[in-house]
Amino acid sequence: MSAIGDQFLYVRGVPADRLPPPAARAGVLGWLRTNLFSSPANITLTLLCVLFIVWAVPPLLRFFLIDAVWSGADGDACLASPAQPQPGACWAFVRVWSSYFVYGFYPIGQRWRVDLFFLTLAFGIVWLLRLSAPRRDISACYFFIVLPILSFVLLHGAPLIGLSVVPTALWGGILVTVVVATIGMVFSLPLGILLALGRCSEMPVVRLFAVIFIEFVRGVPLITVLFMASVMLPLFVPEHLAPDKLIRALIGVALFASAYMAEVVRGGLIAVPRGQYEAARALGLGYWRMTGLVILPQALRVTLPNIVNTFIGLFKDTTLVFVVGIFDFLHAIEAARADPKWAAPTTTVTGYVFAGLFYFVCCYGMSRYARNVEARLTRSGRR
Amino acid sequence: MIEKIQDLLPQDLPRRPRRFGGIALQIALILVIAGLAYGAIVNVAQNLARAHIASGFGFWNNTAGFDISQTLISYSASTSSFGRAFWVGLLNTLLVAAIAIVLATVLGFVVGIARLSRNWLVARLAGGYVELIRNVPLLLQLFFWYNAVLKSLPQLHGSVTLPGGGILNNRGLFLPRAEFAPHFSAVLIALFVAIAAAIVLRDWSRRRRERTGRLIRIFWPVLGLLCGLPLAALALAGFPLSFSVPHMGRFNVSGGVEILPEFAALVLVLTIYTAAFIAEVVRAGVLAVHAGQTEAAQALGLRSAATLRLVVVPQAMRVIIPPLTSQYLNLIKNSSLAVAIGYPDLVQVFAGSVLNITGQAVEVIAITMAVYLSISLFMSLLMNLYARTTAIVER
Fold it and tell me: Is B143 in Cβ contact with A219 (below 8 Å)?
């Protein structure tokens, strides 16, 4: 026993301090080594990427920022001249046309109404989507009932309270894009919920109609639905009731979006555990109270990220109303770039890039929101 | 003393009312929809009569009288019927969709795998591509490529001549066209023989490996077979193949095969756009394979290529295929955006030109929708069959 004891002259009583990791694995160098230069193949890939960035980024920066033309009265400012042999993006074009891009032909004296509409809408969206906002039940009422009426009165006008009527033919640009997207959202969510409930219903006739509608709409392109709304809808109603062109497109978009929304909501309904249905039944709740008080709140919460993603799709799809002659943002860009006064080689690209930025900022913002909600739901264990 | 459980219950327990609500609701729904449909039909009949528009499908055989810029089957404005125009449009839609589906799948898989790369820069670039493309409307991208890129290519006089005899200008891309002499069928037969031989060879090598445990590499023999046999047939048949090279005329390019800028823009945009979505599908599919599967495969001694081929990909494909199919369907539906730049697809030819000439909106839109609907239903049928064959058999 003592022989063994003699072998160990010293045994450390406390653990040694941790040594720092080897220099090659820590810090900036270590990060570079593991993430960019871990193997010959990786080094090649990294070099190719760097070459691509060096090739692509400086010309883009030069075109869109350094050589760009920021001010000017017409297209001549954006043409090549001795002072600017290679003119870049024609931001002057966007500046001059910006109010047209936002309001279309909406009368200049009445544009405060559009601004007010944007404000009330932004307020409603923030209230509805901020998970920590107070009284989100009232916000739903506001968004789905008050806001549509208020915006109709504001935008279309009501002679009774002194707002002159602005026909929809004068609406245009971002205003129309936002109106189409909002109407699509406001109508597609309730309709989609009804359709989803119908598809999950025990009543065969209800289920059949819901399935036919959903599968039919999801099986055809939005363009054909819009064509149908714009050329067939006037035939379906008596001649004097034929709706306005914008309303027809709105009906098409709302019906289209509701079929997609229905599938998203159905996903949420399926995700609610069976026990919840059984517990609600056991408490003696009827179908509507079970659905309204127990199932839907959970289903909608689970599927909120998907609802937002559907809305992103809807927002992008609003551009298709262009095809049936509605004057949305993209149409405004097309009209502006065709203006002979601004006939410079760079205006087309600039207009499209500006529109692209607008859509990107909107859609990317929404998708970040959806991802945040999803992360929150995952953390709270509700999946 | 309590004899039966009934004694515990109050005697006048209200009976649960029988539910007639459900049946009444269904009958009401049928009545409402039937009423709406009836009203719509009456209105359509009245409105059409007032506008003196014919109804029915009699127009199908009438002479179309309009030109189509790209026709895969013979078509002439003066003699062909509206029905012929329909087939021309449908084939154009299918052509664009088929080419874009192949290209988008390749690009999508590359980008999706790049997003999972351990190389930070590659993953970031792929991620940036996906975010950028997914968040900008397809129609805007289409306009960008068509109006800003392809339309700003040099005009006829400044045409770019490509290596191999192609010509590129803002009227399109002109490529040499292969022209086959009758003997060319010999080459095709040789190709089929080569493919059959390759399959036989593969089966033989597999059986031999199972029996003896020895691996025989057949990659090079198969490659030689697939290339050599058709080439030999080509030489024996006296090269029954010539190329019609496009050449510049004074006012246009003649000869060769012409690729319309509309077609190019549509294929390009559908490829780029759908690839971004396919990349996400692929990424999700690969991530869905549990890391333990890879570790188990490595523990069994499989190399990384074999792990990928035998363990990861088969499992990932089961997750990838269903959403991939729905992306293909989206692509086919999105190809209808052709109407915005004037590529003669089904919607542009049929729901555009034919509708405008005949005015028969109901029939024309119904046919157009029916086509897309049948494509969708057919694809979902295939999908369900696939899902059934690859479903995991639960114990």
Answer: no
B112, B118, B122, B128 alpha-carbon torsion, rounded to 10°: 60
Kindly state the tokens that stand for B239.
């090269």
- How many whole angstroms from its chain centre is CA A155? 23
Determine which of A62-71, A193-202, B327-336 has the lowest per-residue pLDDT on average: A62-71
Q: Please name every residue paired with B253 in a beta bridge, in sequence order, or none if there are none.
A: B248
Q: Which residues of B touch A322 (CB under 8 A)?
A: 139, 340
Residues from chain B that touch A219, judged by Cβ atoms under 8 A, are 372-373, 376-377
- The answer for residues whose C-beta is within 8 angstroms of residue B376's C-beta and 6 or more apart is A218, A219, A220, B329, B333
- CA dist A369 and B32 (Å) reads 40
List the structure tokens of B168: 């590129």
* Residues B362, A322: C-beta atoms closer than 8 Å: no
B118 contacts on A by Cβ (under 8 Å): 34-35, 38, 42
The larger pLDDT score, comparing residue A155 to residue B217, is at A155
B144: chain A residues, CB-CB within 8 Å:
349, 352, 356
Q: Which fold has domain A167-379?
A: MetI-like fold (1.10.3720)
Give tens-digit pLDDT for A214-257: 999 999 999 999 998 988 888 888 777 778 888 999 999 999 99
Nearest chain A Cα distance for residue B200, angstroms: 36
DSSP state of A70: -
- Give A205's contacts in chain B (Cβ within 8 Å): 26, 29-30
pLDDT of residue A5: 53
What was the ipTM of the complex prediction? 0.88
- pLDDT tens for residues B234-276? 888 777 777 777 777 777 777 778 888 899 999 999 999 999 9
Mark yes or no for CB contact B136/A359 under 8 Å. yes
CA distances to B132, B136, B160, B309 from B105, in Å: 18, 20, 30, 18
Residue of B nearest to A239 (CA): B47
Domains of chain B: 82-157+259-390 (1.10.3720.10)
The two three-digit tokens of residue A91, written as one number: 């931001």
> What is the number of CB-based contacts under 8 A between chain A and chain B?
153
| Interval B281-290: pLDDT, tens | 999 999 999 8
Mean residue pLDDT of chain B comes to 85
On chain B, the residues whose CB falls within 8 A of the CB of A218 are: 376
* Residue pLDDT, tens place only, A265-297: 999 999 899 899 999 989 988 888 999 899 998
- Checking if the pLDDT of B58 tops 90, the result is no
Q: Which residue of A lies nearest to B42 if distances are taken between CA atoms?
A: A236
Confidence at residue A1, expressed as pLDDT on a 0 to 100 scale: 45
Are A213 and A196 in contact, with CB atoms under 8 Å apart?
no
* Of the candidates A355, A300, A296, A301, the residue with the CA atom closest to the CA atom of residue A329: A355
- The mean pLDDT value for B148-167 works out to 80
Which tokens sit at B78?
């003066």
Instruction: Name the region of B56 (left: φ>0; alpha: ψ -120 to 50; beta: rest).
Output: left
DSSP annotation of B348 reads I
Find the closest chain B residue to A323 by CA distance. B340
> H helices within A104-173, ranges in order?
111-129, 136-141, 147-156
On whether the CB atoms of residues A290 and A280 are closer than 8 A, the answer is: yes
Nearest to B135 among A205, A348, A363 (CB): A363
Residue with structure tokens 């199932």?
A: A295
Relative to beta strand B253-254, strand B167-169 is unpaired
Whether B137 sits inside 8 A of A316 (CB atoms) is yes
